[in-house]
């Protein structure tokens, strides 16, 4: 095989044809080298793989331990269940009562704090709605009172018509 003659001042190509490719196109190897991950990405990927493996191992150990505990303690739990079921029920009810009492206490404390700020004139959040509702109720009560006065006058005149001597 004859070597290809390079022009003056150009060194002959020592790279094989598949690596250089046709002129004007980038080769597959060059594209792979340009898209290769840098060292930070490689370290991040390895950290991800190691962390995943450790978590998978811990999950397997936990599941194995739970199954072994059920195998060994299952008969004991089954034989002592007449004691455990009422005890768990009483503890559940007691927990519900305590949590409900605490929630009610927090609600009462928040409400009384809001009322204190409202009556002291500090205008807590939502006080404008309360003022609007109070004015609507007062207006409605005034209208009902006026209507009742008008209607009672109407009724008095009707009573005098029905019993003129009364």
From TrEMBL:
Primary location recorded for the protein, binned into one broad class: other
GO terms for biological process, alphabetical: lipid storage; post-embryonic development; reproductive structure development
Transmembrane portions of the chain: 45-77, 83-116
Pfam families: Oleosin
Localisation per UniProt entry: Lipid droplet; Membrane
Stretches the record annotates as Disordered: 1-24
Keyword Transmembrane included in the entry's annotation: yes
Topology relative to the membrane: Multi-pass membrane protein
InterPro entries reported for this sequence: Oleosin
GO cellular component terms, A-Z: membrane; monolayer-surrounded lipid storage body
UniProt keywords, alphabetically: Lipid droplet, Membrane, Transmembrane, Transmembrane helix
UniProt key word DNA damage: no
Superkingdom as given in the UniProt entry: Eukaryota
PANTHER family (UniProt xref): F27J15.22 (PTHR33203:SF4), OLEOSIN (PTHR33203)
Family listed: Belongs to the oleosin family.
Protein name in UniProt: (wild Malaysian banana) hypothetical protein
Species of origin: Musa acuminata subsp. malaccensis (Wild banana)
């Amino acid at each position: 095989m004859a070597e290809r003659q390079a022009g003056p001042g150009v060194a002959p190509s020592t790279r094989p044809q598949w690596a250089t490719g046709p002129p004007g196109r980038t080769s597959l190897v060059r594209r792979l080298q340009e898209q290769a991950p840098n060292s930070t990405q490689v370290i991040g990927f390895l950290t991800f793989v190691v962390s995943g493996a450790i978590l998978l191992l811990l999950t397997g150990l936990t599941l194995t331990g739970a199954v072994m505990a059920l195998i060994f303690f299952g008969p004991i739990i089954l034989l002592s269940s007449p004691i455990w079921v009422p005890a768990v029920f009483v503890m559940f009810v007691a927990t519900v009562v305590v949590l409900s009492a605490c929630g009610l206490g927090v609600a009462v404390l928040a409400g009384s704090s809001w009322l204190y700020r409202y009556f002291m004139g500090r205008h807590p959040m939502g006080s404008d709605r309360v003022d609007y509702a109070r004015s609507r109720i007062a207006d409605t009560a005034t209208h009902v009172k006026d209507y009742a006065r008008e209607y009672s006058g109407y009724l008095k005149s009707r009573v005098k018509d029905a019993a003129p001597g009364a």
